[in-house]
Amino acid sequence: MLGNLAILAHRQGDDERTRFLWQESLSIIQQCGHQTCSSWALAHLAGWRVRHGAFADAARLLGVAAALHPLYRRSMDPDEREACDASLAAARDALGEAAFLTALKDGEGLTRAQAIAEALATEESARPVDVGTPVSGV
C-alpha cells in the first residue's frame, strides 16, 4: 500500500514524500523478509537516487534488487518496468559502462540488511536531475 502511495506521490511531483513512503515501505518489508517486495522497493528507491544524481548508489541498489530476486521486475507493471530500464540506462550513461558495471556488481555483493540500510539512508546533498522517466512511474 505504501509503495502505491509512493508512486502516486511521485506522479503528483512530491519528491520528498515519494522518498519517505518508499523508505517507510522498505522498513516494513524488512520485518517480513519478503524478497520480491524488498527488490521492488529497492528498485524504486534506486530510481529516486537516479533522479537525484546518485548514480553509483542507484546502480548498487539495482544490483542488489536483482541479486535478492532475479525476477523481481515481473512484480512490476509495464510502466514500472519501462521506468526501471530508464533508470538503469541513465545510471549507465552517467557513470560510463565500466563504473556502472562495478557499482552493479558491488550491489550484488550486498547482504539484504546492508542494502536496506543503504536504501534507508537519506542523501542530504542530492539534487533532482532530469533523466527521463523515473523508476516510480510515468
Explain what the structure shows:
This protein is mainly α. It has one domain (2-120). The protein contains seven helices and no strands. The protein has helices at residues 2-11, 15-32, 35-51, 55-68, 78-95, 97-108, 112-120. Helix 4 packs across helix 5 (78-95). It is globular and about 35 Å long. The two termini are 18 Å apart.
Keywords:
about 140 residues, single chain, mainly alpha
Q: Residue share in helices?
A: over 70%
Quote the average pLDDT.
80
- N to C succession of SSEs: HHHHHHH
Largest sheet data: none
- What structural class do you assign from the helix and strand content? mainly alpha
Number of domains: 1
Shape: globular
- Percentage of residues in DSSP E strands: under 5%
Regions with little confidence, pLDDT below 50 for 5+ residues: 123-138
Instruction: Please compute the radius of gyration using only Cα atoms.
Output: 13 Å
The total beta strand count reads 0
Termini separation comes to 18 Å
Annotation field: number of helices: 7
